[in-house]
Amino acid sequence: FKGGDTCEYLLSSGRFLGEKVWQPHSCMMHKYKNSEAKNCLIDKHVVFIGDSRIRQLFYSFIKLINPQVKEEGIKHGNIPFEDKSASIKVDFLWYPEVNGSMRQRIKSWTEGSVAKPHIIVVGAATWSIKIHNGSNEALAQYKINITSIAPLLEKLAINSDVYWVLQDPVYEDMLSESRKMITNEKIDAYNEAAVRILNSSSRNSKAKVKVFSVSKLIAQETIMKSADGLHLPESSRATNAMILMNVYCNKIMKPIDGSCCQPQPPLTLIQKIAFCFFTLSIIGYLIISLIHRNNYRKNKSCTDLESGEEKKPAISIPNVSTLEMLLHCFCKLGLIMTYFYLCDRANLFMKENKFYTHSSFFIPIVYILVLGVFYTENTKETKVLNREQTDEWKGWMQLVILIYHISGASTFLPVYMHIRVLVAAYLFQTGYGHFSYFWIKGDFGVYRVCQVLFRLNFLVVVLCIVMDRPYQFYYFVPLVTVWFMIIYATLALWPQIIQKKANGNCLWHFGLLLKLICLLTCIYFLSYSQGAFEKIFSFWPLSKCFELNGNVYEWWFRWKLDRYVVFHGMLFAFIYLALQKRQMISEGKGDPLFSNRVSNVLLFISIVSFLTYSIWASSCKNKTECNELHPSVSVVQILAFILIRNIPGYVRSVYSSFFAWFGKISLELFICQYHIWLAADTKGILVLIPGYPMFNVLVSTFIFVCVAHEISQITNDLAQIVVPKDNSTLLKRLLCIAGFFSGLHFFSAMQDQSRH
């Protein structure tokens, strides 16, 4: 809203989320790992100048580079640090007072060809207060000394990053007798003097000494935990060091979840072309709309003034043309994509880090579940996993996943493991749904394949262009796309076995089972042969789709995490349809799925299995170990849920229309959340209305859901135009699509070349 530099916000304002998580105003702070800190500071020289408080900050800073460092240096002397592997030098210079000695040291860096530090952090005042017993003369001398040092710091700030650290408040009740003269009133006076002099000095200068005032805010919240009332606790010092690292390194490393101090990325060539395309679509649609409106006015029936009767127009109003419908869709899509870009690529709206609490996750979950129950209606059919039921299932799962993402619940392992089951359930439905269609319909035509691929991938392809992200970044869509093609290949390849053929000869059922066993064998082999998997997906053009950060490891990890669940979905569909064909299950309204005895036994086993899995997931201690077991055991809870949901006839005969509505746009919700509900590619939260968290969530959620619903309609409309039923027309469209992707690849290659 201030249109300001997020660096200023990072250095001057923020608040605590909980006890230890610092949230800068308007932007996100990245938590740097040792390796990242080294990469950022390679061949750099950093200098800390000041008293014992600056020495504390120095130690916290070098611990970000090497956590093994111990605070064993001389208390009242210089302390050097060097990391030879990255050629990093960090020095602490003991100058507890702003005086002639400090000025002389700073001046030495401004003269001649002396190597200047890349980062200079300066601050001192408490020693001046202590030595001179808080006298006014000492404050006057402090002002004179800073006034003499300010031009030198300004000169250094032309080529180096210079930070003046304001003095933190003290906890006066805990101060020793020798420090009682150091009061917060005196500290405020010294800080005011420093800020006034440094700001006036830099008013007309491009180079500016950055005032590090955020430490005061942090200290106000944490100084009561100090050991002596003067020095900050370790967690606060670490936060200050991390802020320094973000100020300097974010513009170099460009972390996704570190929006502070990051400039807006320049538009790429492909983004510029997309902008032109959407602009022309909007102009074209407006022109056609105006022409049609004028024609309508000309042909509109006019009232006979004498008889009062209407005369019919000589020409009938034409129907909406394909071109107009196409331009209308791209016009709406262009406006929506502009909103996407403004939310997550331009520095227009604020972004904040996530912070998990149990209440922020579980209270919304309870709320939406209660809300869903109020919208209970009867289903049109009472079959197992009927359309309304699967939409409902997708809907409530998607809402839970959205709450999981915005609340940052991935840090809580039991919740993470249950959400993994929900993602697996989506893939289970992919296996179940596509297998059922091909098995029953026997439709292996190109039209069906193109329709499915278009509906799955249209939004993601557009976002890859507009948001400048690789296809694999939206990992779920590549996952369901590849699994759809695997299901299609398994059933379409010779011999094609469908239900109609299998009903004539039971041996075909064994043939299909043999196909499924072959599929399972391939899955098992690829899951334990990372090399073979990476070779398959490293071939061009597959590598362009599945690489992330230059390799396909992320894709292998995502695929491996739920490798068996699609097969489980296919197998379940086969068994269910076989039982249904032989009338071994009862799907009448209100009837239990099996006989009462069998239904009760299965229901009991399902409930026990469901709870057993939840207990196991809740007791997980190690994410890696639990992820290893997840592919094999996630099907237990999925099958248990299906049986609990379908065995009792009265439960199978109703559904929640509230959840089903969200289920119909679940794919759009899953993808859109990346940029217009969350922020920084899901790492943070979008803030449209700062200062009012609940109101912000309500407004951003309303826009987010409306946009997802609109994109779903646009996708459906475009699918009818881009993927026609006529084979000859479809072939022409496929050639156009191939040309489009060839052009995209060409411009992408040009883009990469210009970047390098």
Please outline the helices and strands:
Blueprint: H1 6-12, E1 14-17, E2 21-24, H2 34-41, E3 45-50, H3 52-65, E4 79-83, E5 88-94, H4 100-110, E6 119-123, H5 126-131, H6 136-156, E7 161-165, H7 184-201, E8 210-212, H8 214-222, H9 234-253, H10 269-299, H11 322-344, E9 350-353, H12 358-373, E10 376-378, H13 387-407, H14 413-441, H15 446-466, H16 476-492, H17 499-504, H18 507-527, H19 530-537, H20 542-546, H21 553-561, H22 565-581, H23 596-618, H24 623-646, H25 649-652, E11 654-656, H26 657-664, H27 666-676, E12 678-679, E13 684-687, H28 693-722, H29 727-755
Parallel strand pairs: 3-5, 3-6, 6-7, 7-8
Antiparallel strand pairs: 1-2, 4-5, 9-13, 10-11, 12-13
Helix pairs in contact: 2-9, 3-9, 4-6, 6-7, 10-11, 11-28, 12-13, 13-14, 13-26, 13-27, 14-16, 14-22, 14-24, 15-16, 15-28, 23-24, 27-28
Features:
756 residues; alpha/beta; Rossmann fold; 3 domains; six-stranded mixed β-sheet; three-stranded antiparallel β-sheet; 29 helices; 62% helix; elongated
